[in-house]
Every structure is written in C-alpha cells, then in structure tokens.
Amino acid sequence: MKVVRIDQVPAEPGAGTLFTGPVTRQPVITGNLSQQFIMNQVNFSPGVRNKFHIHTSDQILIVTAGKGICATEKEEVTVGPGDVILFPAGERHWHGATKDSAFSHIYVTGVNNKTTQVET
Fold first, then answer.
1. DSSP β-bridge partners for residue 25
2. What average pLDDT does this structure show over 39-66?
3. Is 24 helix (H, G, I), strand (E, B) or coil?
4. CA separation (Å) from 78 to 12, 65, 68, 102?
5. Does the pTM exceed 0.90?
C-alpha cells in the first residue's frame, strides 16, 4: 500500500497547447506503481480550461477543490468537490475553472491513452 497526500506532491507546470492559460500538474501515481492507468491532479486558475479534446480511453475526473465546468458538445455542468465525472472514450469534451474560482481535479485514464486536441 502507498498513501499519497496530494498537498505533499510538488506541482509541475502544465505544458502544451491544450490549455487556455497556465495550469499545474501533480502526479499522483509515478513509476511502476500502475501498469493500467495514469492518475494526476490538475490545478486550474480562475477562468482557465482545456480546449475541446478526445481520449482513446475513458477518462474519470474526481473534483478535489474549487468550482469547475465540465462540457460536451451537448451540455455544460458546474461541478465541485466530491463530484465524479466520466467521459467515455471518443467523446469531445473540455473541463476547467469557472471565471470566479480556481479548480482542481484528479484525472484517471488508461495507460495507453492518447489525447487529441480538436479545438484550436
């Protein structure tokens, strides 16, 4: 067993063009701890979101702090701590902070997941 205390995991700057502004990432599982999935916490500043994208595996979000929005092409839902969101593989979606709140979530995807940004 390994216990991870997210407040003790160093935050790393998020990289790439997927986000509309700066985010940080905290790896929850590292090394050989999991051969089946990837798990990280992502921290968004107020108003920052990722762009529409799709995954080749299902994605689970577990909201840990703040107020956020999860959206598909058909709906937008405001979410908060304790909410769990499932995006099936192949579903166009985005998620991020509301304009008035920072937002953090842990995401879980398959270890072989590929993410494709579909919004410029």
1. 12, 42
2. 98
3. strand
4. 26, 13, 6, 13
5. yes
Question: 6-112 domain in CATH 3.30.2350.10?
Answer: no
Give the span between the Cα atoms of 12 and 43, in whole angstroms: 10
Strands (E), 1-120: 12-13, 23-27, 37-44, 53-55, 59-66, 68-72, 76-79, 84-87, 93-97, 103-110, 115-117
86 beta partners: 60
Amino acid at 73: E
Q: Is the dihedral of CA 93, 94, 99, 103 positive or negative?
A: positive
Residue 8 and residue 16: Cα distance in Å, rounded?
A: 25
